[in-house]
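Section 3.1: Structural characterization of target chains.
Under the original work plan, the team committed to producing a structural model for every single-chain target entering the pipeline before any wet-lab resources were allocated. The record below documents one such target. The sequence was received from the expression subgroup and is listed exactly as submitted; it comprises 438 residues.
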Amino acid sequence: MSRATVFSACLLMTAAALASVETAHAQGQLREERQTLELPVNERLPEELQPHGITYKGLVVRPTLETETRHDTNIFAEANDETSDTILSVRPGISLLKLFSAHRFLAGASAEIDRFSKHPDEGTDAYNGFLRGRLSIGEGWAAPFGIAFDRKARDNSAPRLSNRTRQPVYTNALSARAGIARQFNRLNVGILGHYGHVKNENGLSAGNGSPAIYSDNDTRSYGAELQFRYGFPRGRDNKDEHILYADYKIIKRDYVRLTHDGSGFFGINRDNLEQGILAGFETNYKGIVFANIGTGYIWRNYDDPALESTGNVSLSADVAWNIIPKLTLSLEASRDSVQNNDFIGGYIKTGAAAGLDYELLHNFYVSGKIGYTTYDFSDSENAAGREEEDTLGHLGLRYHHSPSLTSAFGLRHQIRNSTIPENEFERTIFLLSLTGQL
């Protein structure tokens, strides 16, 4: 398999990870770097069905276009008066990879355009873009950097305090990082600086038309991260197959405004200092097993003495195992503090999921997944005692007509249980999609 072919096969996975602006403590060096050299475990397509991208003078370009039609039985995620609709989604995207000797550059952009059949005012236009690179600056030295922007509408199904808005409102997030790294034989040590800016739009409540204020969640954050990586190579190419990692991260998060108390921004100051440690391992064993498992602790100290300091265990686990050549088992687990929402102090989201993907025919795959998620609001000053949980199921079929064309069918079901009855809901989504890529 050619190097350009394998690079192009991995661009979308890497692009999705890089475009995200959420703070994540778990690392993925093998996912981001090693998988550009070997086909990922969960993308085990035969050679003749792999998209190759467009290669020109060392530049690998991979354009994609996905169209999806889905029917949602509860588009507003309401407990009563469920509203159904059919949505058309168009998702264009492009990724570009360029190697200059020991330097690497990866850029990408994507968009999602949703249009509703019965409720045209609910249509959304989301997009993101990123640029990431790694400059070689001498023997054993490198300078990684990255910048990403993401614009997306608020999710009706996410936990919230206020009613939904009459029309979608958006969150815009910018993140950047840069630093320096040094390789000492098998040990890699790096220091990175982080910057983030989140801006939230306001709207009008769908109930009575009163102002729905989200701009008190606007933040600017500054931070630093110390990274340690220790690799265990194998084979003649001396590439790392296993990596032990440990990170320490510190972030100063400043809120642009005090919380809105109904008459103005005269409420609580939520500025805080967040620190986190995480340690774990990552492995990619002969393309058969991929695993990234890490755990740590995150604590947050608020500037306002009225808010209590918090501390929580953090967990991130991602495992994919090719049990037999045609069957892959996937396991996921996570626990993290979710900020940038209506809850003062945020909430703890803990989830686990298991899935199977089976190659029924040479180019026909069937997959299934079940998941369970809990939302803990014990750290929140304005939602103490509230608890919620999600149960999710997914069944999917996909057919690869050629390396450039894939069609898929999916069925998803979600049940939300809550200690507050009006927050409970149930929804089913049927979807058909067609994806073209080079």
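The chain is about 5% helix and 60% strand.
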